[in-house]
Amino acid sequence: MISEPELEGEWDSGRPAMPAQEPDAPRERVRGARTAWLWALGGAVVASAVWAGVLVAQDRFAAAVPRISYRHAEDLCKVKLTAVSAATAQLTGDYARHGEHPALDWAYCVHGGRFAEGHLSYGAEAAVELHKKTDPRTEFGADPAGLRGIGGMASSGGEVEQVSGLGERALLTRRVGGSRLQVLDGGAVFTITVEWFGEPNDPDPDEDAVQAAMIEDMRTLMTSLRK
């Protein structure tokens, strides 16, 4: 039987004293250096991602700014509605207003004709909006199918159809008592509205001729304001 001292002696003999972790010390230094390198790499990746996000945001903002190829008109009554006058009555532009803002420039002119007993009376309005901060394409044609003008000529109801050959997109609204032609081109929105009213026995207008005249005068308006 082995006594307790002999057992202790057996454990003590042949075993060095315990300074043992020196082989592991360099491994700890390597791990620390690799951790620092990973932090540096992660920081570079994050910085690159942030910078890429800034560039994407700048590109999106630049793309959202609409193109405007037309100048602002302080007196839109200088552009005559010659074709509409010939198709309806002798109209004169006698009420012009305009406004300028960092986000939107606008102008309109109200045209009126003389009253004649036994004949329809006509009124017209030309309007231009230059959107400098937001793109009007997202809302173009989304308003109710009526006649809406800046100067106040408005009514609800009507049928809307596309018109080719004017700007990026053009819509013609027809309803009883009037028509509206609206054109989108970049950040510019052009509107010509024609309305007529009279007694029940007054002769009806030639609506096709009126709408063809509106298209002709719209081309003249856009050409006159192009930069």
Give a structural overview:
The chain has 227 residues and is α+β, with helices and mostly antiparallel strands. The protein folds into two domains: 1-64; 76-225. The protein contains four helices and nine strands. It has helices at residues 4-12, 25-64, 82-87, 207-225, and strands spanning 92-99, 104-112, 121-131, 147-148, 154-155, 159-162, 169-175, 178-185, 188-197. Strands 1-2-3-9-8-7-6 form a seven-stranded antiparallel beta sheet, covered by helices on one side. Strands 4-5 form a two-stranded antiparallel sheet. Strand 8 and strand 9 form a beta hairpin. It starts with a helix and ends with a helix. 26% of the residues are buried. Residues 1-11 have a biased composition (Acidic residues). Keywords: Membrane, Transmembrane, Transmembrane helix. Residues 1-27 are annotated as: Disordered.
Instruction: Average the pLDDT over all residues and give the rounded result.
Output: 77
* Main sheet overview: 7 strands, antiparallel
Look at the helices and sheets and give the structural class: alpha+beta
- Distance from first to last alpha carbon: 114 Å
Task: Estimate the strand proportion.
Answer: 25-35%
Helix count equals 4
Number of spatially distinct domains = 2
